[in-house]
């Protein structure tokens, strides 16, 4: 099940980036450096999928698996690969932010750039804390009650929750930017900034709640 979840998550991730890529500066996308960077991200993604799929095929865990020297060595390496593939949101977010020729309304332009940049910053924060432990749960569940579909614990803290919220800043904030277009023009950009601050606050609240051993729902 875990390899399938990762395949789906990466499909959504790269499909979103492919849509946003149309607002990247054309000259930047034609450079050799950009092509090399893309190749590195693709290689890191394939490495992640091979690691997760290989662990599943061997009937062992991919994450938090320190059962032997090989797995203990692979785990931090896979963390580096994960940060590298996530860095694509930061690079694209900054590039779109600086691109004055997107043709997008200002609140949409700003929300897209902020969503991408915050996805990287908040995901690295949440995933970094998650990776320091021995599992995604904080506390010991009694009945194993979980949220449908998401699978988050309903009894104890579950660090997958802030990780999930952080990753989807790249979707939530552009939607907020589109919604801001319905407001008076002078309120549109402030509304996007409020949405960005709210997203940060939500992720940090979810992170603190989970670390305290409390379920979000």
Helix content: over 70%
Oligomer status: single chain
Taken as a percent bin, the fraction of beta residues is: under 5%
Please tally the helical runs, counting DSSP H or I stretches of 4 or more residues: 8
Order of strands in the sheet with the most strands? 1-2
Number of strands: 2
Biggest sheet details: 2 strands, antiparallel
SSE-based structural type: mainly alpha
Radius of gyration, taken over Cα atoms and rounded to an integer in Å: 19 Å
N-to-C order of helices and strands: HHHHHEEHHH
List the helices and strands and how they pair.
Layout: H1 2-20, H2 26-29, H3 32-57, H4 69-98, H5 106-132, E1 137-138, E2 157-158, H6 160-167, H7 169-180, H8 185-211
What do these coordinates show?
The chain has 8 helices and 2 strands; from the N terminus they run H-H-H-H-H-E-E-H-H-H. The radius of gyration is 19 Å and the shape is flat. Strands 1-2 form a two-stranded antiparallel sheet. The model has no long low-confidence stretch (mean pLDDT 93). The two termini are 23 Å apart. The chain has 217 residues and is mainly alpha-helical. The protein has helices at 2-20, 26-29, 32-57, 69-98, 106-132, 160-167, 169-180, 185-211; strands at 137-138, 157-158.
């Amino acid at each position: 099940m875990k390899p399938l979840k990762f395949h789906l998550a990466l499909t959504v991730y790269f499909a979103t980036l492919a849509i946003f890529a149309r607002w990247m500066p054309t000259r930047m996308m034609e450079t050799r450096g950009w092509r090399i960077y893309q190749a590195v991200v693709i290689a890191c993604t394939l490495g992640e999928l091979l690691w997760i799929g290989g662990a599943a095929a061997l009937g062992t865990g991919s994450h938090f698996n320190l059962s032997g020297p090989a797995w203990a060595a692979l785990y931090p390496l896979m963390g580096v690969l994960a940060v590298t593939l996530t860095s694509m949101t930061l690079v694209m977010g900054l590039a779109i932010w600086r691109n004055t020729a997107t043709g997008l309304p200002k609140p949409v332009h700003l929300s897209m750039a902020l969503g991408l940049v915050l996805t990287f910053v908040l995901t690295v924060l949440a995933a970094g804390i998650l990776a320091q432990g021995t599992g995604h749960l904080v506390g010991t569940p009694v009945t194993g009650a979980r949220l449908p579909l998401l699978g988050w614990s309903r009894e104890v803290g579950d660090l997958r929750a802030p990780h999930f919220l952080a990753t989807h800043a790249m979707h939530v904030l552009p939607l907020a930017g589109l919604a801001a277009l319905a407001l008076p023009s002078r309120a549109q950009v402030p509304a996007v900034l409020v949405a960005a601050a709210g997203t940060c606050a939500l992720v940090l609240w979810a992170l603190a709640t989970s670390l305290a051993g409390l379920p979000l729902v």
